[in-house]
Amino acid sequence: MTRRAAIVAPLRTPVGKFLGALRELPAERLAQLVIEAVVARSGIDSARIGDVVFAQSYANSEAPCIGRWAALAAGLPIEVPGFQLDRRCGGGLQAIVTAAMMVETGVADVVLAGGVESMSNIEYYTTAMRGGTRAGNAVMYDRLERGRERSQPVERFGVISGMIETAENLARDFSISREAADAFAAQSHARAVAAWRDGLFADEVIAVDVPAKKGRSIMLAQDEGMRADTTVESLAALRSIMKDGVVTAGNSSQQNDAAAACLIVAEHKLTELRLEPIGYVTGWAAAGCDPARMGIGPVPAVAKLFARTKLGWDDIDLVELNEAFAVQVLAVLKGWGWEDQTRLNVNGSGISLGHPIGATGVRIAATLLHEMQRRKARYGLETMCVGGGQGIAAVFERA
């Protein structure tokens, strides 16, 4: 029997700004909240969940193996196992397709898949203190920046200062201008603002009650990073991050806090479990690329995916491409030879909504699947670049 993987109840928290409203909630609590929401929204008997897989790119020992930790915190039965994975920016999508493979191969009938990141709470650390130090100073590393600098082995690829350098490489390779990058970034904000104004995120976003001082709390119900006043002119006034570069803070993705999750369910179990699917996982692929040009990863990943599924651009109704940088998006479009922006990121993405690394892949899936329902689209493509030189892509079919 062919076991098709259905997607049920994709939900997400609002995306919080760096050191913004969600800063008081560490990653494990954000993950706990979205697990609780998926269980409640779907109506699943949590004892029927066969496993919990969660992506997190900046893990630490405050909540090790966050899939298991958050499942226990959310009150799932202790018999339900859980684990954690990391494919950097593509981790959330990897959690979905890993759960789908588990369902397709009969390992489980129901898997809860998600992703989380609290970039506001990524810590500083040292590697010098385990054996002690007799004198002198110990270096404290910013894990957030260090993860970008150490995304590839220096002895093979040399020093790459970080993701901004990789984006500037693509801007040169594909002749992406500052004006084009700023125009794309302004469009991302405009689309996100319009989507919130028109209530398009209502079915996917859960409000989060954030603890505040003196026993009070703040209810966050909307993404914090989008800016209604963003224009090409306001973006043009920003200084480039690298000398004579194209990339600015305004045409790059944000650093954010969020969690997102869904159920992946064997199709033949939907009726028994009284679950309503929103879509199905049709296929996926990952591919490597030059770490110094990591943003181009979606080009080989989508080529591999299309070869595997026998689908092509004419079959795809909507595309979600993570907006790590505006220049990365524009370079990928040129690499694909496909530039129909009426089907691309129609409600904004990383530049406007934010890029909470481990959560992004599931956040995008939630947004894409709900938009596919509204438009009665058959196929949606989700794809993203990955720090260290990878791309990942998946096709979903509307239920």
From TrEMBL:
Has UniProt tagged this entry with the keyword Transcription regulation? no
Q: Which UniProt keywords apply?
A: Acyltransferase, Transferase
Gene3D superfamilies, per the entry: 3.40.47.10
Transferase among keywords: yes
Q: Which residues form the Thiolase C-terminal domain?
A: 276-398
Give the similarity note: Belongs to the thiolase-like superfamily. Thiolase family.
Q: Which protein are we looking at?
A: Putative acetyl-CoA acyltransferase
